[in-house]
Amino acid sequence: MNEYKSMIEDKIKEYLQEDLGYGDITSESLISPEQEAGARLYYKEPGIVSGLTESSLVFDLLGCESSILAKEGSKTDAYRTLMEINGSAKAILMGERLALNLVGRMAGIATRTSKVVEKARKGNPKIRIAATRKTAPGLRIFDKRAVIHGGGDPHRFRLDDCVLIKDNHLELLPSISIAVEKTREKVSFTKKIEVEVRSLEGAIEAARAGADIIMFDNMSPVKIIENLAILKEEGLHDGVLFEASGGITIENVSEYAATGVDILSLGSLTHSVESIDVKLEIEMI
Amino acid sequence: MNEYKSMIEDKIKEYLQEDLGYGDITSESLISPEQEAGARLYYKEPGIVSGLTESSLVFDLLGCESSILAKEGSKTDAYRTLMEINGSAKAILMGERLALNLVGRMAGIATRTSKVVEKARKGNPKIRIAATRKTAPGLRIFDKRAVIHGGGDPHRFRLDDCVLIKDNHLELLPSISIAVEKTREKVSFTKKIEVEVRSLEGAIEAARAGADIIMFDNMSPVKIIENLAILKEEGLHDGVLFEASGGITIENVSEYAATGVDILSLGSLTHSVESIDVKLEIEMI
Amino acid sequence: MNEYKSMIEDKIKEYLQEDLGYGDITSESLISPEQEAGARLYYKEPGIVSGLTESSLVFDLLGCESSILAKEGSKTDAYRTLMEINGSAKAILMGERLALNLVGRMAGIATRTSKVVEKARKGNPKIRIAATRKTAPGLRIFDKRAVIHGGGDPHRFRLDDCVLIKDNHLELLPSISIAVEKTREKVSFTKKIEVEVRSLEGAIEAARAGADIIMFDNMSPVKIIENLAILKEEGLHDGVLFEASGGITIENVSEYAATGVDILSLGSLTHSVESIDVKLEIEMI
Amino acid sequence: MNEYKSMIEDKIKEYLQEDLGYGDITSESLISPEQEAGARLYYKEPGIVSGLTESSLVFDLLGCESSILAKEGSKTDAYRTLMEINGSAKAILMGERLALNLVGRMAGIATRTSKVVEKARKGNPKIRIAATRKTAPGLRIFDKRAVIHGGGDPHRFRLDDCVLIKDNHLELLPSISIAVEKTREKVSFTKKIEVEVRSLEGAIEAARAGADIIMFDNMSPVKIIENLAILKEEGLHDGVLFEASGGITIENVSEYAATGVDILSLGSLTHSVESIDVKLEIEMI
Amino acid sequence: MNEYKSMIEDKIKEYLQEDLGYGDITSESLISPEQEAGARLYYKEPGIVSGLTESSLVFDLLGCESSILAKEGSKTDAYRTLMEINGSAKAILMGERLALNLVGRMAGIATRTSKVVEKARKGNPKIRIAATRKTAPGLRIFDKRAVIHGGGDPHRFRLDDCVLIKDNHLELLPSISIAVEKTREKVSFTKKIEVEVRSLEGAIEAARAGADIIMFDNMSPVKIIENLAILKEEGLHDGVLFEASGGITIENVSEYAATGVDILSLGSLTHSVESIDVKLEIEMI
Amino acid sequence: MNEYKSMIEDKIKEYLQEDLGYGDITSESLISPEQEAGARLYYKEPGIVSGLTESSLVFDLLGCESSILAKEGSKTDAYRTLMEINGSAKAILMGERLALNLVGRMAGIATRTSKVVEKARKGNPKIRIAATRKTAPGLRIFDKRAVIHGGGDPHRFRLDDCVLIKDNHLELLPSISIAVEKTREKVSFTKKIEVEVRSLEGAIEAARAGADIIMFDNMSPVKIIENLAILKEEGLHDGVLFEASGGITIENVSEYAATGVDILSLGSLTHSVESIDVKLEIEMI
């Protein structure tokens, strides 16, 4: 088992337990323990491959053999076999639903991310599309991984990944500069400092205070373009990464990308996921 | 702490840990431990109340006081305060994202379920709208609870809740009657037996074998109406519950409801969730 | 590892830890890590085979090889080898006590259940003998599994397996019919509804309300026979399962079985277990 | 919460989860969350009080108030109230079965142990009655505690509590003296060394080697008396504790006690437990 | 309980369990459960206050009341009371050793860090003294926290906190620039990139490639001064943080600090800890 | 996996998780999953071999192959290869730090213990050097094991291993004899009773009361010699083990050993550990 599988093994076991309870009373009554079966997993629509490592672990834990036939992060057509499983028919049936739930969600996230990336790159070929912490509770590692498979940037996994000074913090402090100064003093030098701003003034102050990343929150593309121009004039543009967030959709993402920011972040990549329609076709042997 | 909170406490702790890592480096640097704050949680759109118990537990575990102001399962307007929180500003900020992620998803599920129920009841005021096992891994208890808040039926939580004989099982057995017989013999008498059928013949055989529930899988409303009529003529209708599943959407749900089945089940209630836009408004004190 | 072993692995590890503490100080001092041994497990009295899967997992987890030589649920004579183990002598000695404790209890339950079933079938060859939730805390899965090996029905594993309306519930409600109605409305359609009654009137009301199972609580065989006759006359017998519980012993079980009920349940199957005398004979190699 | 409750809290939570599953579907449908109730717990037969701490924790964890009215380890008559509980009716019903299962088993063990102790003290007022490691898996702490409540000695909790050199070990070593020597050298000086012997010669050798405890395994009372006499003559009696084990029952325990050994150990105290009949009487308020 | 205590609660419980086993057999035999006691905790030598939150939680979990009388991170004299505890005498005795072990180690780390910081600040008043990942397994959160209390910087808690390209990585890549480029492309923009270099050339290449932090590994102070001068000349100094590591001791730390680097990191802060001599003085009441 | 590895597997997994977070972002970006590597582990100074089993498990869990080339507890020179690892380069890099942290600490403890033992044996070739419960929280099993590898005695692992009556206990009791008597009555006969004394009178009373071990606390070598002589005269020396503790250092250990006590215990063996400098040399293949 590789490092990643070893890291998620307990979660997958917990999910299996959640679905099985004291066992699959139907399959156990109907299927002999000796009955062997094979199965193949595929999407019923085109999409980005994701969730295969996770779902193969489901079958491993149930004593089956699985082999992954497509690279996670690559595109796939509908009906192409992405994974094959062999083992006890009962075990395959027990793992089926969980495997499909994992792939369905992750493939849904990866595929949507990929579409957003593709659309955004029309506005700016170097733009990064980032997710947020708006993930399903307990599933952050899977949601973020699927974003990466879709070509996105995971952004913060946790509150300790990077400083992000928001409005709520600023209400308690005399100024952005003091906030930046305070975090620089108290937080490890290994961490970046990001500041969320809603105005040009905020951005200027943050840049002067030495913020590593400045996020324009809920700002129109036009306004962002204006602000970046002024920051450039003021010599405050270089060495800083600019991010836009709030109100970005697949429709306007290309326009936002064209503003010149480095990163666009969208909560919807993970908080409102449309599952890919995935199928496990089982054949008794 | 009541029984439900006690049951989910470990999950909520795990989710907090997932989001916090070694702590909220921003808030800890900027906000004094003595700083107190209040907060109110509301939807930015109308919907069904759900997820308040779970998110109040987030704040309890962080040492805050929370009070729930709306009954889960009831309708709410946008901007109505659903929960109030008081406590350390730092703690409220640490719990914010998780609380919103929980409410956002659960409210999304409950609200969609409620819309489907409402629509379906136009076709048949007694219809039950049921979810499936297509939930996000680890979140079954929350997804199912949200379905209930939306007026739906949770259907099976686990594979041991009720027998459900599917195509994959039937491929391995000579007939539906033998499958039903076998499960009745081997499974506890406390469990119902459901059979998934794709034809009238299957339904007749299942009913004769004494199935408690018969599910029409991927069958058109017209076909279902025909089949139910024949089953009635054959004296095989009473004492059996009929469920339809596969291809049911909010658009056609009323038509399906009007066929005379007792239950309609939809995977999309939980596998493709659109989050409700929820907000936590924090006010420093 | 198959699905069942995978499901119970953490429990078995916990039990090993409970018995080992920081290690077997005697064996570790006396036996070289290279010392190999073989062992065979047998009953010192005839009985029903049970607990072999669980105890083989004990040895697997300690790095030994084990092979099961008898089918769980079958009868065995005294001294017949049921399992063979090979591996490090130290490991076999470390696992010995836990393996015997598991088999001893499960075999005790299975054997007693089997005797009760055999006795009861003299009164009614189709009777089901069911256990209750009176199991040893933490051991429900093993206790119920042993009941099944003995030819019994596990009845409810958990409070969410099936509705069971008891006296304590009825004290709070105007009538049995209202109680049944309420649970049918609130509980998933996938669940059966059982009602515990102490009188003919209760049984009639429960049957009319559509209870799936009616349990005669602490009622004499004579009274049960009378009541079933009247229920039949009233057309309330068919489509309902009847269970008797309370005061049933191996002495009177055949008489109870002959009353015409479908199920007899006995708490004593699991709350007062007499261990089978099991032996692990170790031979150093 | 005191230290003991804190130590067993996770176990009790696990047991609750085992019994509840996703909740008590009956009580949740029928009983309003506001409904309060009181309950009293008593034995329906006389016995030794045990298991109250554990079962009070069940109710604490469900949010009820419980008060223990009898000292664990003391004798109680039938029907005397041993514990009172107040709280949500639903919660009391949810905890009922687990609380009774805990008390039933522990009271059963304590009561039997107490009877054996009483009987044995007729033969020797200073005799110690000890349990073995033949406990129900996972329940060692409770089984041993119940033995203590019954006036018994818990003997080893774990394999690292004390050296116990058995036949299986001796097969691998040239002599008892070498075995004792080896363990004395390798095991911490804080541990006692016990040797199981089947003959006078073994006992003499063990005593000479400096064993702290010598156990006569499966030896008749007559033989034990003889052997002790010879050991005394040889000056090998003082400073050593003598234990007898194997084949000791409540019938012959007094005779064994009269032999002059210090300790008698019986596996049956914990491997074959007869539950005390315990009742929780609930009264809705 | 605040967020931090809530985060470490399970660890402290595990440590208690590790020390208690099945209980404190001495105190339980000798001290009545009703016996109350008070205790005060102090250092027997001057030092930096650390570990009080952790050790107060030990006593909280055992049902005692504790109050912290000194701010963590502040200096204390010998014998000054830092914490007071009140509660059951037995519980205080049970928690004593763990509490002292926690404070002893954390105070040891904090005090040593503080001395190193003080010494280093003589060479450069703005220098940061950082720890490494050379912590005791399982204790990273406590070891790092103690470093912070001593005025140090925790550096990376985990391998995902910040990129750190080392020799082992560079062996596999054609050049530092390509390594930096690759990580910038693949790792989230929220992360800094640090490169360990052993030569001026390496430093120049890393700076040109845009490394955020450059670490001089095992380089003499003289060499570092030279290299920084050249980097400044080349315009590669600003916007980069410089760290020195390897061979830094309390003896030479001031000299290293004077070289002009921003950070000095020392593994010895946490891998070779000298405990502070801490005492819990208990007074029975 | 042998019993010991199986026992510590969860701890090692937890430590890996602690160090990895969501993964090694550096290695994952730079090293292809197919890249294989070999590695060898050695000390950079002479010492006692310890921690190899633990660190080999780190690599096993990451999917590598490891082979141990030196016996734990033996002496090793600097630079001798003690373990070889083969596998994915990424995995080896991920496990490196934890493996070194484990070996560094354990080797440090074992080596220091060995030096103390060697020194002490000059004073008394039969002396036992024992550790205390002053270990790093969570690491007791490893710290004690390292003491054993260094030739030491682990003393108590837990508070339930042996009775140890201390000053704090005696303050609550009328006399040492009563304390010993009480513990003998309440604690299992399988446990030894140790008494800590600060005077000859205490030692005499403890010996008369039948203590198994008497510990001279903070007593000078001269005083101990005097006391042992008097105890011998009084016939209170034989059958009792004598331990000295408090103020024993590597400098005076030989003098203490020569006093005639059986055991010397030193907290510093585990509370103030100096890591051995261990290196993992990786070679890409």
Task: Kindly describe this structure.
- 6 copies of one chain form a homohexamer.
- In chain A, helix 1 crosses helix 3, helix 3 packs antiparallel against helix 4 (89-123) and helix 7 (176-186) runs parallel beside helix 8 (200-209).
- The first copy, chain A, is built from 11 helices and 12 strands.
- In chain A, helix 10 (253-257) links the parallel strand 10 and strand 11.
- Chain A is an alpha/beta fold and 285 residues long.
- In chain A, the strands form 3 sheets. Chain A has a 6-stranded parallel beta sheet. In chain A, strands 3-5-1-12 form a 4-stranded antiparallel beta sheet, with helices on one face. A two-stranded antiparallel sheet of chain A has the order 2-4.
- In chain A, 44% of the residues lie in helices and 19% in strands.
- Chain A has 2 domains: 2-116 and 273-284, Quinolinate phosphoribosyl transferase, N-terminal domain (Aldehyde Oxidoreductase, domain 3, Alpha-Beta Complex); 119-271, Aldolase class I (TIM Barrel), CATH 3.20.20.
- Chains D and E meet through helix 1 of D and helix 1 and helix 4 of E.
How many beta-strand segments of chain A?
Answer: 12
- Order of strands across the biggest sheet of chain A? 6-11-10-9-8-7
Task: Kindly report the greatest chain-chain contact and the residue count on each side.
Answer: A-B, 66 and 66 residues
At the fold tier of CATH, the topology name of the largest domain in chain A is TIM Barrel
How far apart, in Å, are the first and last alpha carbons of chain A?
A: 27 Å
Strand content of chain A: 15-25%
Assembly level: homohexamer
